[in-house]
Specification:
Layout: E1 16-17, H1 20-32, E2 42-46, E3 51-52, H2 54-66, E4 71-75, H3 77-87, H4 92-97, H5 101-116, E5 118-121, E6 125-127, E7 139-143, H6 146-153, E8 163-170, H7 175-186, H8 191-194, H9 196-210, E9 221-222, H10 226-229, H11 245-257, H12 266-272, E10 290-292, E11 314-315, E12 323-325, H13 327-331
Parallel strand pairs: 1-9, 2-4, 2-5, 4-12
Antiparallel strand pairs: 3-11, 5-8, 6-10, 7-8
Helix pairs in contact: 5-7, 6-11
Length: 332
């Protein structure tokens, strides 16, 4: 793979880019050097088998409608360990040591993007509009909604990004994912160290500490606005039917109480007057590209709670014109 043109040294582009000025400068550089769309038109799907519920089939169809020319790659549970064993044998022991299946699924998505590039999105993502413009970047890590960040990373303004592993994009061999592979080798296999938003946020923060300035686009990670890939309906927390929502509202109210009498930003002051209303902290005018399912009432992978996850089963190979099973990518 040809290495992209170097970034002008006077620009001092940060390796992790999460603000508009940085994004604009990055895009300007990429257009100048003619580095078109390096992220391949591939979506990786992780699921138990080829059969998905009618509910998830509808979400997959939204991708087919908007990106019919993409290749859709299904990785079944039975495909995962052989992939690690053949493509990342040094990580097989760590993979097998992980206690929960969801931890292995999180680990696998980083390996798939490092090896093949493309897009990883959770099965419960509906595509709203083309994401081709994000293929101009070399890596995209989406973020959790702003109230999630305030709850877990503290009541900061601007809001500190809490990375989301639910929707990721990358070129093959990206420097950040190489860093993730190295960190996975050395980390103790706990749920928070390798999986979920906390593990991914730690990966990003460590990468940024070691490589604060990018020398090449292949070293840069773009983090788009939270609303673009993880919006709440009408910008209200209460639009979610996830059981944890009430606990989140309570936790945010308690965090706001701790700010009483302190000097805080206008945005946080306004938000704390009604933590259900995200308008003071989340710009709803940002375009929405994909919507994460906020109707679920139970875990997808543990099979609890939501009946329609298993209703009206559909063979997902019949949904897409360009469909392959994961092993075909490296065995051909």
């Amino acid at each position: 793979m040809m290495r992209p043109a170097a970034i002008d040294s006077h620009r001092s582009l940060p390796s992790v880019c999460s603000v508009e000025t940085c994004r604009a400068d990055y895009v300007r550089h990429l257009r100048q050097v003619g580095d078109a769309f390096p992220i391949p038109k591939i979506r990786h799907i992780l699921w138990k088998s080829k059969l998905v519920s009618g509910y998830f089939a509808e979400q997959l169809l939204s991708w087919k409608r908007i990106h019919p020319d993409w290749t859709y790659v299904l990785w079944r549970d039975e495909d995962l360990e052989p992939f690690v064993a053949t493509q990342f044998p040094g990580l097989l022991g760590k993979y097998k040591s992980l206690q929960h299946h969801i931890m292995r699924v999180d680990m696998i998505r980083y390996m798939l993007l490092f090896k093949f590039g493309g897009v990883y999105a959770d099965l419960d993502y509906t595509l709203v509009r083309s994401i081709d413009q994000f293929r101009r970047f070399h890596a995209v890590v989406t973020r959790e909604p702003d109230p999630h960040s305030l709850q877990f990373l503290g009541m900061h303004w601007p809001v500190k990004p809490l990375a989301s592993p639910a929707f990721l994009m990358s070129t093959p061999g990206h420097a950040f994912l190489h860093s993730v592979m190295q960190q996975l080798e050395s980390r103790a296999p706990t749920q928070f160290s390798v999986a979920g938003p906390f593990g991914l946020t730690e990966f990003l923060e460590r990468y940024q500490r070691i490589f604060p300035v990018a020398n090449h686009p292949l070293e840069t990670v773009y983090i788009p606005p939270a609303h673009s890939f993880y919006p709440y309906g009408d910008n209200r927390l209460s639009s979610s039917r996830i059981p944890y929502t009430q606990e989140r509202l309570r936790a945010l109210k308690e965090a706001c109480q701790l700010l009483v009498g302190k000097s805080v930003s206008k945005n946080l002051t306004q938000y704390c007057s009604n933590v259900d209303n995200l308008d003071p902290i989340t710009d709803r005018n940002q375009p929405v590209y994909a919507v994460h399912d906020l109707k679920k009432t139970g875990s997808i992978w543990y099979g609890a709670g939501t009946k329609f996850y298993n209703d009206n089963l559909t063979d997902c190979s019949k949904i897409f014109q360009r469909f392959v099973l994961g092993p075909e990518l490296y065995k051909s």
